[in-house]
Amino acid sequence: MLLSFLPLVAIASASPLRPQADIPVYWLLAGDSTTAPNGGWGDGFLATTVASNSSGHNYGHSGATTASFRAGGDWGKVIQDVRTYKNKYNIYVTIQFGHNDQKETSGVSVNQYKANLERFAVEATSAGATPILLTPLTRRVFSGDRVVQNLADQRAATISVAQSNSIDFIDLNIASENYVNAIGKSEASKYNLASNDWTHLNEWGGVVFARIVSDLLVEKFPELASVTKKNETLSALVKAGKPA
Ligand SMILES: *[C@@H]1O[C@H](CO)[C@@H](O)[C@H](O)[C@H]1NC(C)=O
Ligand SMILES: *[C@@H]1O[C@H](CO)[C@@H](O)[C@H](O)[C@H]1NC(C)=O
Fold it and tell me: Does residue 52's CB lie within 6 angstroms of at least one atom of ligand 1?
């Protein structure tokens, strides 16, 4: 009996100010090209997983690091939107970076990446939103019949920031990697934005990986079910590791 209460207690204590479920959500998506229009999951998320009356904006920016997203003004727009919409909506800010931060030329160390993620979350919270950190979407580059795990450091850093600061997170990296491993290279290639682009997603790929994001969110934060549009067929295919 006691054990069955533990997960509930954990959720409640991690998110003491969890908003009421019956208010629509405004989603603000912060990230790089793997979230952005024309290559990421963000537009598919807003178009196919968000229930009526809820809404949002995809601020994913191709090439962005956690540093350039702030320096270039994108983060300022996210915070401005939190202030604009918070009286009518519960605001959730998804924060997903790593693909560009990890490049040697980025000028962003893993420690700076962690500090930048934490600062995004702190500022989103104080502006009136609920931030959710996402570990970075997997690339779909194969070595033999397995996906190359080349975002492990960014995944670990994101989880570490979330856990040590009680910030909500979902592990998109592992969920997306598991799915791509399950369907294999040939099926995974059908989501490529261009035939040789194993990072960015075409429109249908955006819908499929947005469904993975949405299912992870609802699994972790059940109160989001009422503001989420389901696609049980697609969710079942993903869960079974079958091509969609
Ligand atoms: C959307 O908002 C309208 C007007 O406030 C309300 O009547 C309706 O029930 C809402 N629909 C959903 C699905 O929440
Ligand atoms: C739901 O998923 C199925 C299976 O992938 C797909 O064929 C269908 O178009 C999706 N429905 C919507 C409304 O997106």
Answer: yes
How far apart, in whole angstroms, are the C-alpha atoms of residue 199 and residue 64? 14
Q: Is the CB of 53 under 6 A from ligand 1?
A: yes
The CB of 88 under 6 Å from ligand 1? The reply is: no
Question: Mind listing the domains of the chain with CATH numbers?
Answer: 2-239 (3.40.50.1110)
- pTM here is 0.91
Q: What is the pLDDT of residue 236?
A: 98
Model pLDDT, residue 19: 55
Cα-to-centroid distance, 213 and ligand 2 (Å):
16
Query: Residues of the chain whose pLDDT is less than 50?
Result: 1-17
Phi, psi dihedrals of residue 180, rounded to the nearest 5°: -65, -40
Q: At what angle do helices 110-127 and 74-85 cross, to 10 degrees?
A: 20
pLDDT score recorded for residue 184: 98
Nearest residue (CA) to ligand 2, atom 14: 48
Work out the number of other CB atoms within 10 angstroms of the CB of residue 242.
Answer: 12
Contact between 128 and 97 under an 8 Å Cβ cutoff? The reply is: no
**pLDDT at residue number 136:** 98
Q: What residues flank ligand 2, with Cβ below 6 Å? A: 48, 231, 233-234, 237, 244
> How far is it, in rounded angstroms, from Cα 237 to Cα 201?
18
pLDDT at 1: 39
pLDDT at residue 146, as a whole number: 97
